[in-house]
Amino acid sequence: xxxxxKFCERPAFIKLHYPRMYLCPEHFTEYFERKVKRTIERYKxxxxxxxxxxVVSGGxxxxxxxxxxKKLGYDIECLHINLGIGEYSEKSEEYAKxxxxxxxxxxxxxxxxxxxxxxxxxxxxxxxxxxxxxxxKRYIFNKFAYDNGFDAVATGHNLDDEAGFILANLxxxxxxxxxxxxxxxxxxxxxxxxxxxxxxxELTEREVVAYALxxxxxxxxxxxxxxxxxxxxxxxxxxxxxxxxxxxxxxxFVKGYLRKKGLFEGELQEADLRECRVCGMPASGEVCSxxxxxxxxxxxxxxxx
Length: 305
Ligand code: Q46
Ligand code: ZN
Ligand code: ZN
Prior knowledge:
- By secondary structure, this protein is of the alpha/beta class.
- 44% of the residues lie in helices and 12% in strands.
- The strands form 3 sheets. The chain has a 6-stranded mixed β-sheet, sandwiched between helices. The chain has a two-stranded antiparallel sheet with strand order 1-2.
- Bound molecules: Fe4 H S5 and zinc ion (ZN) (2 copies).
- Fe4 H S5 is lined by residues 83, 120, 129-130, 133-134, 224, 226-227.
């Protein structure tokens, strides 16, 4: 006999392990959206009237973030950064376009190859690809948000990502990193570092996949070709095994981290930030790491959206 939803007579669509309950698609959707709303309120992610830029990759997490924020009535626009990683990036852009059209949300597209001359993976450097990819993405979405007057940048990081990042950084005792993560990273440097928010902070990857399925959200399933072998994937696997055995492991781990984060703050060496000589954005030396890596001599500007 099929299991029934906890709140109605319909057949269950998902079994949640923590809290334990069976839910139909409608009640699961309600549960999920309520949880996002609670995250936004509890951690004060968004103030009334703020304009939010959602970074959409074409994947499930950012698509679900945009979908829920729009449904909850927030003022959002989306930004897709085409990384120039061959067919993978072309497909990602297609998905991002379709997702935003369906949602009826404005989408801005920035193409790394057009803007910087080379795509991610095409630069000759000793630096690992994911490291300069991360640097490039963070710089672009922050500068785009700053130049266009957005109050916050929302990303699709979910509970599995956060638990994985925290554990991976604990394994390396990367206390600098551990001192400043969380569901919201406030604006700094006179707003030049725009506020970063993570509305899916308390939702597992499995719940995000289920929400996309229940709400007909299509997304790019393929992983980036450079992601293979990333330690974060291994760490996430270990956390999943523990979650199987002890439901609630991930959320309790992340909430415990937020309570104890202060322990790491003493280790924080606040870099003496100043304005980059090239672009004017925050830099720890004379030139910011983005302008240094891409050998910029002019500030990066975006064609009008
Ligand atoms: S960092 Fe690395 Fe990702 Fe950039 S190169 Fe691909 S895997 S996309 S999240
Ligand atoms: Zn139901
Ligand atoms: Zn710079």
